[in-house]
Specification:
Length: 356
């Protein structure tokens, strides 16, 4: 079945439909990972976005239930050059087309994903619409014009209740802005007793479990939209060891009076170079963010930059000069991508007084 991708700048890409037959609108972004399409689709940080994959073949190793990063697909749509519905992997349980159909996600393939990526790099992120419903260009334009892209998706993907995952080790309060399953897995591997809190949990609620430390998770959208968490984090970082990942990193910056800004097209993929200043080592990391911390804004906030991006020198990590507080912009848990930076979790455990 024919499908069409229409961008807010008027660009038109015609291709073939897969997944759900329908129409969807979202913010167009690109991801440079060669593998991990299942983890990318189920990462809550992609809520509200339509993902354009730069790698030209998607689906060749199928889909299985073990590698989901959450219970469903959070992206609004999926764009690929070619799909393979024949899976070459013993773990495969279904193909990528079935996965999208089962979760009501619209996809398009057979388009020039390189051209789309170059357009995003030149123009920045754009609104777009994918439709396999035989709509006219005027109808697509009208849909796009009427659809507002919001940046508060972290409030929708966060848990609605407090969840405890028992463990024999340190007690960790995990604030969920869209946490990935592999962050939880990394804490479980270190035998942590984990309590997951909603994004808007109060300081008193969090401290009621007497945690050894707090982890502010990743998540989608603009960190400035989650004002409740910023206010709570102001108290947390003064009173308890705290670590932030991605959106959590940005929230810590805002909590101390620093600033964040929206990037032109963000960092999304499993091959981003980061320099760890304190270790004097470079790492290839997994990333997924459209906002960053303003380096100049943290200079007088008792924080020092610990990591920088090797492509554009943006802030990838920071720590407080005196308090047990640090954060990273990238994803130390990988999934997809390298897990070379999982030592960050060991650093967190060590900061709480535990062993690696």
């Amino acid at each position: 079945m024919e499908s069409i991708l229409y961008l807010e700048d008027g660009s038109i890409y015609k291709g073939k439909a897969f997944g759900k037959i329908g129409t969807t609108v979202g913010e167009l972004v690109f991801n440079t990972s060669m593998t991990g399409y299942q983890e990318i689709l189920t990462d809550p940080s992609y809520a509200g976005q339509i993902i354009n994959m730069t790698y030209p073949l998607i689906g060749n190793y199928g889909v299985n239930n073990l590698e989901n990063e959450s219970s469903k697909i959070h992206a609004k749509g999926f764009i690929v050059k070619n799909i393979s519905n024949q899976a070459f992997n013993y773990m495969s349980e279904k193909n990528i087309d079935d996965m999208l159909k089962g979760m009501d996600i619209v996809g398009i393939y057979g388009v020039d994903t390189r051209s789309i990526t170059k357009k995003i790099r030149n123009s920045g992120v754009l609104k777009c619409v994918i439709s396999s419903e035989n709509l006219s260009i005027d109808e697509l334009k009208n849909i796009l014009d009427k659809t507002e892209i919001k940046d508060d998706y972290m409030k929708k993907v966060s848990t609605k209740e407090i969840i405890n995952i028992p463990g024999d080790g340190l007690r960790v309060a995990l604030i969920d802005f869209g946490v990935k399953q592999n962050i939880i897995n990394n804490l479980k591997q270190r035998e942590c007793d984990i309590t997951i809190f909603p994004y808007n949990a109060s300081y008193e609620e969090i401290m009621s479990i007497n945690p050894d430390g707090v982890l502010l998770s990743n998540g989608p959208g603009d960190p400035k939209e989650v004002k409740e968490a910023i206010e709570t984090s102001k108290k947390l970082i003064k009173n308890i060891p705290t670590m932030g990942i991605c959106l959590g990193h940005q929230i810590i910056a805002l909590a101390v009076g620093a600033n964040t800004y929206k990037m032109k097209y963000g960092h999304r993929g499993g091959n981003h170079g980061v320099y760890d200043i304190e270790r004097d080592r470079s790492f290839i990391t997994s990333q997924n963010h459209g906002y960053a911390v303003d380096a100049n804004s943290i200079k007088d906030k008792e924080f020092i930059v610990t990591h920088i991006n090797l492509n554009d020198n943006t802030v990838e990590g920071m720590r407080h000069k005196n308090l047990p507080v640090f954060s990273v912009q990238y994803h130390p848990e990988g999934s997809p991508g390298p897990q070379d930076s999982s030592y960050i979790f060991d650093k967190f455990i060590s900061m709480l007084g535990g062993e690696k």
